[in-house]
Specification:
Blueprint: E1 18-31, E2 34-41, E3 44-50, H1 56-62, E4 70-79, E5 94-105, H2 122-127, H3 129-132, H4 136-158, E6 162-163, E7 181-183, E8 191-193, H5 199-207, E9 212-220, E10 232-241, H6 245-263, E11 268-269, E12 274-277, H7 278-285, E13 299-300, H8 302-306, H9 311-318, E14 322-328, H10 336-348, E15 355-359, E16 374-375, H11 384-393, E17 401-407, H12 409-426, E18 434-435, E19 437-441, E20 446-449, E21 454-457, H13 472-475, E22 484-489, E23 492-499, H14 504-513, H15 518-532, E24 539-545, H16 546-554, H17 584-589
Parallel strand pairs: 3-5, 6-9, 11-18, 12-19
Antiparallel strand pairs: 1-2, 1-4, 2-3, 4-5, 7-8, 9-10, 10-24, 13-14, 14-17, 15-16, 15-17, 19-22, 20-21, 22-23, 23-24
Helix pairs in contact: 4-6, 5-15, 10-12, 14-15
Bound molecules: aspartic acid.
Length: 599
C-alpha cells in the first residue's frame, strides 16, 4: 500500500505517531517559511505542513504542488498550535509534520474547484463527472447508495429471498413505455429489447418455484424525458409466491423502515406507514402521490358554490365538473401581488383561473363574518351566506385564505395538488427531516385513454382484479378495482406493486380488454401464458425505485444526484458523448441502414 493511514483518521490520541498518507492536494497555502496543504482522500482532509527545518527537500518540492496533484507524504502527527485548531474538521486538532514527500502524479488545472460549496453548470459537472465525484458530498452519496443496496441484500436474504439475475437482452415486454432495442448480428433483421423491468421474468421465476425473488435491477425506458426521468434507472425488484397484498407490504415496510433508521438516524419515519385507498387519496389530496407532511386537505364545495350567482361555478356544476379547494392557513392578509402570483401558478398547471376568498383576521368568527372582512374577485357574486357556508365546509377560520378551482375533476385535482405542494413550500410547512411514507392501494385496474378511445392498464397488464369486481370486467371495466398499490413518500412515488394474475384465461381476458390481437398476445406474452398452464402459484410483488429512495434519503430533489454516471435531460451522456454514430462496418455487420429525418 502507498499509505498506512487514511487522511481522515489522525486525532489527538495519535499524536507523535509516524504515518504515511496518500491522496489529492485539496488546497495549498504558502506562508513563506511554512507550506500547508490540505490532503484529501475518501475519508476526509488532513492538514499537512512542510517545514524546511524538518526537511528542506520536502519543503522545496512542496513549492511545486498544485491542486489535485496526487502525493504520498510521510511524517509525524503533531498537535496544532493553540488557536490554530479547526473545529469543522474531524482531524482539526492535529496536523502532519512532513519528513518525506513523493509526487505520484500531476493534474492539469481542474475544470472546477473540488468543493461542495461551489455552483457548477450541470453539463460541465457531467462532462467531468470523474472530478465531480471527488467532491466530499458525492463520495458520501456513493457510500450511502452502497449502504442501502447492502442492506437490501442483507435484509431480504434474512427474509428468505434469493437474488436472481435476469437477462438484459430480452424480447420486448411492453409496460407502457417505448423499448430500447438492440439489433442482432446473427439474426439479420431481428432485435432484442432491453427490459423496461424484469416483470415477466420474475413471474416466470414464481412458476419455477423460487417463491421469494429479488434483484437490484436496471430498467430501461425510452421515454421523452420529463422533469426527473433517466433512460435507465435502478429498481429493487421483488416477487413472492403464496402472498396477499399485506404480506408484500409488510416485507417492504420493514425493509424501508430499517434502511431509513440506519442511514438517516435523525429522520422521523411514519410507523406504521399510513394507508389510504386511491379514492381517498384523490379526495383528500387531489393526487395519488400525496405529501403527508402537512395538512391543507381538499374539500369539495360543488353544491354550495353552485347555489351562488357566480356563472363559472354554475356552469362547471351543471356540466358535471367539480369545485374544490383548500385553506391556506394565516394567508388572509395576502396582497394583490401574492394572489396574482398564485393565480399565475394555478394557470401554469392548466387552470383557467384561481378563485380566492381572503378572510380578515379581525373577524370574530366565521359566523360573524361581514362584507368588510372578505376580499375576493367573486365577492359580487357570492352572498355573505354562501361565503360563510363555503368557509365552514372548508374548515376555515378568520385570517385564512381559501383557494378554489373549478373545472373537470381531473383538472381541478391536478391544479389543487400542485398548488397545495407549492403553498407548503412557501409557508415552510415541511420538516426536511420527516419521511412520510404512505401506501396508496385499490387503484382502478384500467384508465380510459381519450386519444386512443380504449382502456389502458393503470399500472401494467399483469395486475389482478379484485375478486369481487370480476363481474365488471365484461360489463364496465372502468369500475374494476385492482389489487395494486403504490408506495409514496413526501409526495413522490417510491414504487408500485400488485398481486398478479396467475391464470391463463383471466390474463387473456385482460389482454383482450386493452385491445391486443391474438397475434400480439401470442408474440409478446406466449411464454407467460404457457407457463401459467403448468401450475403457476398465486404471487405478487413490487418494483421500487432505488434512485428515488437514495435521493430522498440524502435530501436531493433530482435522481441524477444519486446516480454515478447519469444522463442529461435530453438523454445524453456528456462524458462519453453517447449516443453517437457507429462505424459503417458495424452498421453493415448488423444489416442496418440509417435514414436520417429530413431536418
Ligand atoms: N414491474 C413493475 C414496474 O416496473 C413493478 C411491479 O409491478 O413489480 O413498475
Amino acid at each position: 500500500m502507498y499509505k498506512d493511514t487514511n487522511c481522515g483518521d489522525p486525532r489527538e490520541s495519535t499524536v507523535n505517531s509516524q504515518i504515511t498518507v496518500a491522496g489529492w492536494v485539496n488546497r495549498r497555502r504558502d506562508h513563506g517559511n511554512l507550506i500547508f496543504i490540505d490532503l484529501r482522500d475518501r475519508s476526509g482532509l488532513l492538514q499537512v505542513v512542510f517545514n524546511p527545518e524538518i526537511s528542506e527537500k520536502a519543503h522545496d518540492l512542496a513549492q511545486t504542488l498544485r491542486s489535485e496533484w496526487v502525493v504520498q507524504v510521510t511524517g509525524k502527527v503533531v498537535a496544532r498550535l493553540q488557536g490554530a485548531e479547526n473545529p469543522d474538521l474531524p482531524t482539526g486538532a492535529v496536523e502532519l509534520s512532513v519528513t518525506d514527500l513523493v509526487i505520484l502524479n500531476q493534474s492539469i488545472t481542474p475544470p472546477f474547484e473540488i468543493s461542495d460549496d461551489i455552483e457548477v453548470d450541470p453539463t460541465t459537472r457531467l462532462k467531468y463527472r470523474f472530478m465531480d465525484l471527488r467532491r466530499p458530498r458525492m463520495q458520501e452519496i456513493l457510500k450511502l447508495r452502497h449502504k442501502v443496496t447492502h442492506m437490501m441484500w442483507n435484509h431480504l436474504t434474512e427474509e428468505g429471498f434469493t437474488q436472481v439475475e435476469t437477462p438484459i437482452l430480452i424480447k420486448s415486454t411492453p409496460e407502457g413505455a417505448r423499448d430500447y432495442v438492440v439489433p442482432s448480428r446473427v439474426h439479420p433483421g431481428d432485435f432484442y429489447a432491453l427490459p423496461q423491468s424484469p416483470q415477466q421474468l420474475k413471474q416466470l421465476l414464481m412458476v419455477s418455484g423460487v417463491e421469494r425473488y429479488f434483484q437490484i435491477a436496471r430498467c430501461f425506458r425510452d421515454e421523452d424525458l420529463r422533469a426527473d426521468r433517466q433512460p435507465e434507472h435502478t429498481q429493487l425488484d421483488l416477487e413472492m409466491s403464496f402472498v396477499h397484498q399485506d404480506d408484500v407490504m409488510a416485507v417492504v415496510e420493514d425493509l424501508y423502515t430499517r434502511i431509513v433508521k440506519e442511514t438517516v438516524p435523525d429522520a422521523t419515519v411514519s410507523s406504521p406507514f399510513v394507508r389510504l385507498t386511491y379514492a381517498e387519496s384523490m379526495d383528500r389530496f387531489g393526487t395519488d402521490k400525496p405529501d403527508m407532511r402537512f395538512g391543507m386537505e381538499m374539500t369539495t364545495i360543488t353544491e354550495t358554490a353552485a347555489t351562488s350567482d357566480a356563472r363559472v361555478f354554475q356552469a362547471v356544476a351543471s356540466s358535471g365538473g367539480s369545485i374544490r379547494g383548500f385553506v391556506a392557513p394565516g394567508c388572509g392578509n395576502y396582497g394583490r401581488r401574492q394572489t396574482d402570483n398564485l393565480t399565475e401558478f394555478a394557470k401554469s398547471s392548466g387552470a383557467q383561473g384561481l378563485v380566492f376568498i381572503a378572510l380578515d383576521e379581525s373577524a370574530p368568527s366565521i359566523d360573524q363574518l361581514e362584507e368588510a372582512h372578505i376580499k375576493s374577485p367573486l365577492k359580487k357574486f357570492l352572498s355573505l351566506d354562501v361565503i360563510k357556508q363555503i368557509a365552514t365546509e372548508m374548515g376555515a377560520t378568520p385570517g385564512d385564505l381559501l383557494l378554489i378551482v373549478a373545472g373537470t375533476d381531473k383538472l381541478v385535482n391536478t391544479v389543487l395538488s400542485n398548488l397545495r405542494n407549492e403553498m407548503a413550500k412557501r409557508l415552510e410547512m415541511v420538516d426536511p427531516k420527516e419521511l412520510a411514507f404512505a401506501w396508496v392501494y385499490d387503484f382502478p385496474l384500467f384508465d380510459w385513454d381519450e386519444d386512443l378511445q380504449k382502456y389502458e392498464p393503470a399500472h401494467h397488464v399483469f395486475s389482478a382484479p379484485k375478486a369481487e369486481h370480476m363481474e365488471y370486467l365484461d360489463s364496465d371495466p372502468s369500475k374494476v378495482i385492482g389489487t395494486l398499490w403504490d408506495l409514496v413518500c413526501n409526495g413522490s412515488e417510491m414504487g408500485s406493486g400488485s398481486i398478479r394474475i396467475h391464470d391463463k384465461d383471466l390474463q387473456t381476458k385482460l389482454f383482450n380488454i386493452i385491445g391486443y390481437t391474438e397475434e400480439q398476445i401470442d408474440d409478446r406474452f406466449g411464454q407467460l401464458l404457457t407457463a401459467f398452464t403448468y401450475g403457476a402459484p398465486p404471487h405478487g410483488g413490487m418494483g421500487l425505485g432505488l434512485d428515488r429512495l437514495c435521493a430522498i434519503l440524502v435530501g436531493e430533489e433530482a435522481i441524477r444526484e444519486v446516480i454515478a454516471f447519469p444522463k442529461t435531460q435530453s438523454a445524453v451522456d456528456p462524458l462519453f458523448e453517447a449516443p453517437s454514430k457507429i462505424e459503417d462496418q458495424q452498421l453493415e455487420d448488423l444489416h442496418i441502414r440509417v435514414v436520417l429525418p429530413k431536418n
